[in-house]
Specification:
341 residues; alpha/beta; 23% strand; globular
Length: 341
Amino acid sequence: MAEHPPSASLVSVQALHKRFTVSGGLLDELGLEKGKVVRRRQVVHAVNGVSLEIRKGEALCLVGESGCGKTTAGRTIMGLLSPSQGTVHYQGERIDGLGRARLLPYRKKMQMIFQNPYASLNPRKTVAATLLEPVRFHFPAMGQRAQLEKVQEVMESVGVDARWSARFPHEFSGGQRQRISIARALMVDPEFMVADEPISALDVSIQAQVLNLLMKAREERGLTYLLITHDLSVVEHFGTRIAVMYLGRICELGETREVFSAPRHPYTQALLSAIPKLGTGRSRHIPLKGEVPTPINLPMGCVFHSRCPHAFEKCRQVIPVQTITASGTRVACHAVEENRI
């Protein structure tokens, strides 16, 4: 059993790994090589040693390009996936690997909002049935009248008319469905919410409305968020801190304002340079060369070294550890550690 994390952290993730086998069953893995039977096993290294301390009341944004492991990390923290290695603590109590019965009390405290509102709602259930289900499961002693009153209160709090509770999901727009998904998560009065790309499937015209709804819920209910996104404008508007992820590893972690004003890791610098800016004259976009390595065959050393303009021999051999800069930002980069950039 790992040592308990500091009490200031609501959720503590230490050295989290998640691997998936993609080579099929045993018979699929067997083959012949020089007349001998050999076993070839392919493994996707989706999350590779992620450590996070999520403070109570904050909105920590986990960002990175598609395929970097953001969603897998979020689902593993929530217990929807079992970690291959590492630990997850909630308020000092280790929760990874708990059985269904022992994990049940944490299901009320930890909720998730999924990316696609068209797929995350049961098309066969009305809005009322969808919202009542978690209440009846987690609060069996609550009376029917109190349950219906809670449905009405939560629906109104997310901007959905309570008179629509008898309707089915197909009768709503994408933005309304996502509001219902948020309402479903709020029905059990959670403390911590993982929001996985909650606005990326919505029209631009209503993305800000849903984002403001999440911010309002955080203020009124004292929620703590892990927001998974690839949209840096969302991070700048929503996040208190930002964790930048590349190929399953955290390369930079710090206060949002500090990271946006003075990014240190070469990958973070390239990401932020891609944000369009009006009236700034000449573009300072930093192009990245090469392709993202496959998570099946992770490169040795720093996972970013094949695309980094500052890489040298140590970067190709040694995995960098996070160092704390003068501003308090954590950066996993040999060049930053050695003051070369």
